[in-house]
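User: structure tokens for this one?
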Amino acid sequence: MSLFKTLTRTSFRPISRCYSRSVTTKRPHFPCVEVHAVRESQLRQMAVNPIPSSTSSTDSDSAESGPEPPYARPNPKSYHVYHDPAPLQLTYSSQLPSFDVAYETWGQLSPKKDNAILLHTGLSASSHAASTALNSAPGWWEKFIGPGKALDTNQFFIICTNVIGGCYGSTGPSSVDPTSGTHYATNFPILSIFDMVRAQFRLLDHLEIDKLYASVGSSMGGMQSLAAGWLHPERVGKVVSISGTARSSPSAVAMRYAQRSVLMADPNWNYGFYYDGLPPHTGMKLARQIATITYRSGPEWDLRFGRQMRPVLEQSPDKPRTPALCPDFLIETYLDHQGEQFCLKYDANSLIYISKAMDLFDLTASSLSANHLNTPSVPSSASTHSLSPSSTPHRTSHSKSHPPPVNPAPHLTDLAEGMQPLAKIPTLVLGVQSDILFTVEQQREMVDALRLAGNEQVSYYELGGVWGHDTFLLDVLNVGGAIRGFLS
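Assistant:
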């Protein structure tokens, strides 16, 4: 008799009998799964009996979310809308026939119109960067904008827009296509970071602002600030890029792809045509959970949550705590809360389109050429600068934490060539050592490429701390201080 037959006859049967006696036939209860069905039922009910939306952009549960500023849907009456009836030329498609740009401002524009700062947002932020007379709710950069703050409204006129592709007042997939009378949905054209900036400069033209004092941005906003200087080097006085990149890394692309994958797998997504039905709320919740992991750092999770678990009611003191398959650790309950808070605040297609634009961002000369992005004319002194990493060091000093690259990346020279339009623009670059989404290697690479391109006015700082990518939202002292010093 074979060993397999022996085991089958003598061992498996008693185990199965024993197991069958211990297993209950009662259906298990999973609140973390059932909440999706509850939310869907509420959405169906709201479709039949709509509830008037609140006029405030504050969130009643924001206090539970920790130190993060709230990302809430702003009231349409609290921002301005610039409508441009002329087509907007796009990188990957022909054009948008017309477009809207939602924006808010702080401070006063000088008589010469030479004190304007264009503030660029991250992926999901609205134009509401700080409180205004029309909207007293705190904005996502509230502590950085105002009298005496990093963006000093006593000196500067601050403009912040909702990017093209977004859902907070600017034209995006949820907007109505003027040629069809229905929502664009996934018929909306693929966008680039350059397209977002082109729309912003059309707004500047409308405001009759010929040249910016500075272009400032964090995260995706850091990409836009570089793109602004690249597209219009003669119209940008200074560039500030915080936790940004000049070339999206494969790891960041992978993280954003995972978010899009779970979102598009939600049956409610319906190939992007969900505006007359239920939104893909489950996919959005899961996508936000993945995103939140990339925005913070492991050391912060350890300090903030450790291995603490949620309290359990009616737990017998003489027995071990019964684990649950739903959120059990405090870090799990935090991620669950973040997903719940976000899943109905932002348009799913906007998340897909804007995150894809981030993935496509690449300032290497070869990528720019492949996308038929013609390099703007640059001063001859910059264009003749040697593009060899081993050439004579620039007068700009390297920080101790960032010496000149000994073994530069193979694409560094290509990136330097692509960034030559920025060679004469004073630039501040900030990196965060605990950032796992836009790692400091990406900011160091950006600085190396700028210096290699001939920019001798690059300031670079690496920040410590445990807040990860979200440091740009939270570290008022260091981030704000560096910006204030650079702009002054």
